[in-house]
Design brief:
205 residues, PH-domain like, 2 domains, 5-stranded antiparallel sheet, 4-stranded mixed sheet, elongated
């Protein structure tokens, strides 16, 4: 791993990280190839990503230490956030101090599943942030329900359909009960799929 001026190579343990994301798109790092990103109390680091499988490996702690190219966390002067959704990545724009020999602006595209972890890490590090209102902030109850409340709705729909199936089965002959539960599952899947398709159409408009 080669270094740029004003950066250094550091070996960082998983336990020392506040944020670890194994697959992030950032055009300004690694010649535009996906990067593994880490934030600690003292530094911000990156390295080439291990591949798209990193999307699923991110929550898994690793043993030992990994090498990152790092700059001091204080080099990040401001973080500008454009909140995404299931179909569009959230954009985090890191504005860097002029003393760091990197692009003055690093733009990261973060998948929906990892967005909340990034937001929590930015708040925990006390970085100055902009671009997201309190009503839309997933770190608040109202913002979280607005951002991912549809998942709770899907759980409720599945619970209602399955409960309804069991109730209906109680009034049917024994030889007909086995067909009720699959119908309840199919009904729940169909309703959730229709709602998700409607959400997709809203995003594309």
């Amino acid at each position: 791993m080669t270094t740029s001026p004003n950066t250094r190579i550091a070996r960082i343990a998983w336990a020392d990280s506040i944020l670890n994301d194994e697959f992030v798109q950032c055009p300004q790092l690694n010649d535009g190839q996906p990067s593994g990103i880490i934030l600690t109390k003292s530094c911000f680091g990156w390295r080439p990503a291990i591949g798209r499988i990193g999307l699923w490996l991110t929550p898994i702690p690793w043993l030992g230490r990994r090498e990152y190219q790092v700059v001091p966390i204080g080099a990040i002067t401001r973080v500008e956030i454009t909140l995404g959704n299931e179909y569009r990545p959230t954009k985090f724009r890191f504005h860097l101090d002029a003393s760091v020999a990197l692009a003055p602006l690093l733009e990261f595209e973060v998948v929906w599943q990892h967005t909340l972890a990034w937001l929590q890490a930015i708040r925990r590090l006390g970085l100055h942030e902009s671009g997201i209102s309190r009503n839309d902030d997933p770190r608040t109850l109202r913002g979280y329900l607005k951002w991912s409340g549809h998942l709770l709705l899907y759980v409720l729909i599945v619970a209602v359909c399955l409960s309804g199936s069991f109730v209906v089965a109680l009034f049917l002959p024994l030889n007909q009960r086995s067909a009720v539960l699959p119908l309840g599952v199919l009904s729940a899947v169909a309703v959730c799929a229709l709602i998700q398709f409607w959400r997709y159409l809203r995003v594309e408009q």
